[in-house]
Specification:
Length: about 240
């Protein structure tokens, strides 16, 4: 029983995934990049259910960065259409799982109809409380910090400001920092994801391209995480 309790504790409260490798997945199959993105979004459907079944409370995914606007217009437009399609088609399933959909990122530059749909999906699922499913679209860690600093300045705070003062202005201030960040497809970097919030996150990297990431891969990552010792600068227990 005591052992069980200990294992329970080792499940991340907030799991974050950098969904990378859609393009390479498609290339390997001689398919257009957008087919890779489509396969990637499909993969997410099941993942919400799997993540929930493992008792994770917050699940965030990096789907489009503030730097991804630098891609060819056709890819960007295609991605926006896929997001639109995915939200419309999947919101009921996600809601039925007890998941609340939230979006994280800058709202500028996104097409108006997509924004409208995002607001609708958030509102439609706002009472679900088993899992927060957070889609980071047009998200950049530097942009988030900068936006928070600007909002903080506008509030005319009393110096010196604290970390908590700044955090209040982050996009989702109530969401705890990610415990585990998984990145697929072999790159060993953060690419501007959860910059501030990842200060004490654990990382897990795999060469698997995101559309090939499955339940088995998820469990490998979670098992690896369960064996880590987090010290936050303190001493070993
Ligand atoms: C991740 O896949 C999805 C987005 C960044 C939108 P990529 O499109 O980055 O795939 P690779 O890295 O080119 O394989
Ligand atoms: C990171 O992937 C962003 C997302 C997964 C949304 P990228 O493919 O854009 O990152 P870089 O360019 O390889 O660093
Ligand atoms: Mg990539």
């Amino acid at each position: 029983m005591a052992e069980e309790k200990k294992l329970e504790k080792k499940v991340p409260t907030h799991l974050a995934i950098i969904l990378d490798g859609n393009g390479r997945w498609a290339k390997k199959r001689n398919l257009p990049r957008l087919m890779g993105h489509r396969a990637g979004l499909r993969k997410l459907e099941n993942m919400v259910r799997l993540v929930k079944a493992r008792g994770i409370r917050y699940f965030s995914v990096y789907a489009f960065s503030t730097e991804n606007w630098n891609r060819p217009a056709m890819e960007v437009t295609g991605l926006m259409s896929l997001f639109r399609y995915y939200i419309r088609k999947k919101v009921d399933e996600v809601k039925a799982e007890g998941a609340r959909i939230r979006f994280c990122g800058r709202k500028d530059k996104l097409p108006e109809d997509l924004l409208k749909q995002m607001r609708w999906a958030e509102d439609y699922t706002k009472d679900q409380n088993i899992l927060d499913f957070i889609l980071c679209i047009n998200y950049g860690g530097r942009a988030e910090i900068l936006d928070a600093v600007n909002s903080l300045i506008a509030s005319k705070p009393q110096a010196p400001v604290t970390e908590e003062d700044l955090r209040k202005y982050f996009y989702l201030p109530d969401v705890p920092d990610p415990d585990l960040i998984i990145r697929t497809s072999g790159e060993l970097r953060l690419s501007n994801f959860w910059l501030w919030e990842s200060a004490y996150s654990e990382y897990y990297f795999t060469d698997i391209h995101w559309p090939d990431f499955d339940e088995n891969e998820l469990d490998k990552a979670l098992e690896n995480y369960a064996g880590r010792e987090r010290r936050y600068g303190g001493l070993k227990n």
